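> call design_seq(struct)
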């Protein structure tokens, strides 16, 4: 009995084991709580910085694209203005040849039609304001019963002495009875279009 009572008293004087664990666990949670807050804050701060970086990069990219677009439009406008000035001032033309066939017919037709509308055909390229290149083609339908007529295609290019192409025109039509007739028809269409484009360039330059 006495030993049992003493043991009881000693048991009452000693702090329960569960109480000690509860205090240590509570202290551990108090230490872990600030660390958890730091982690949450770090993650949130990182997301904010990443978002700021993303928007900054997008702003830089947009500014760069805007700058490049403005630069290209200005360069295109300058090139277009330069081409318009060259076409407006064009007078002397040197005729070059892409294919050797039909050279005489093509030259005679072009000389006649271009002279009619005020251009001068020169034999020396050093005297020329521009060089005229002609590329004739023939379109033939191979399949079918032959009811579709063949077509003649003439492509004309005017280039400056520095090889810059300032004017291009394509004439397509049902082929005539001979190559000479094709050259006459194409040259007349080409000369009419060229003088019209030149007059448009002159009026455009007068407004600027």
């Amino acid at each position: 009995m006495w030993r049992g009572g003493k043991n009881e008293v000693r048991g009452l004087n000693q702090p329960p084991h569960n109480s000690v664990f509860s205090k240590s666990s509570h202290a551990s949670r108090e230490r872990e709580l600030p660390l958890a807050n730091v982690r949450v804050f770090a993650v949130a701060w990182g997301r904010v910085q990443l978002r700021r970086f993303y928007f900054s990069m997008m702003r830089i990219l947009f500014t760069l694209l805007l700058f490049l677009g403005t630069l290209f439009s200005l360069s295109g406008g300058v090139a277009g203005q330069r081409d318009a000035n060259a076409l407006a001032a064009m007078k002397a033309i040197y005729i070059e040849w892409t294919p050797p066939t039909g050279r005489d017919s093509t030259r005679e037709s072009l000389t006649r039609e271009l002279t009619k509308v005020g251009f001068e055909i020169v034999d020396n390229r050093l005297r020329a304001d521009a060089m005229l290149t002609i590329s004739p083609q023939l379109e033939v339908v191979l399949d079918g019963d032959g009811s579709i007529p063949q077509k003649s295609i003439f492509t004309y290019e005017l280039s400056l002495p520095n090889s810059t192409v300032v004017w291009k025109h394509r004439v397509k039509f049902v082929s005539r009875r001979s190559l000479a007739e094709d050259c006459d028809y194409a040259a007349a269409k080409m000369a009419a279009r060229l003088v019209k484009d030149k007059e448009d360039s002159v009026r455009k330059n007068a407004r600027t």
